[in-house]
Amino acid sequence: MSDAIDLTVMYAMHDALRRELAHLERITTAVDRDPRYVLATAAGWQLFQKSLHAHHTAEDDALWPALRHSLAGRPQDLAVLEALEAEHAAIDPVIEAIDARLADPETDPLRLCELTDALATGLAGHLKHEEDAALPLIQRALTAEQWGHFGQVHAQRLAPDAPALLPWLLDGADELTVERLLAALPSPARATCTSQWLPAYTVLDRWSPGTAD
Prior knowledge:
The chain has about 210 residues and is mainly alpha-helical. It is built from nine helices and no strands. It has a single domain, classed as Four Helix Bundle (Hemerythrin (Met), subunit A), CATH 1.20.120. The longest helix is centred in the middle third of the chain and has 33 residues. It is globular.
């Protein structure tokens, strides 16, 4: 196991995605609110999508290719990678179907709930599969340089929405995780995050209707 590869950001992202899936389940099963209106107008749904898209595209573009190269000649391990890539490919169409339903005023709430349940099941299964099978492979097979390149690409994908996505990522994280993620930022960004981004996020009720930009 490589001590040079710090998986903090991966586990932080996975924990944040699971946190949002729990919110999604709560909203779509609530009896006192219309989930169509909540998801269509809540900042939480947008933040979830942006974070997931940034995370998965960084893996697709900078992590899986490097891991595939390192695993050449190891068919069993490559099969794990192919399965993870297939799981990625299966998630996007479900999100697109949810958005299509939200844009249709005649959407059946039951069908929307079925789609969000499929998203939650598929993504939760993928996150566990990645943690159980891929992260050990990453620590055994990747160099620190390859992992560092993925980290740079991952940060670049989050950067356009960093004022919202970084506090989102830190929400509920333990003290050590917060410390490590903030330490990775340039000093000006770390100061801005502490003084501006985090306070603005704290007052955002992201899963309330009407909070989306």
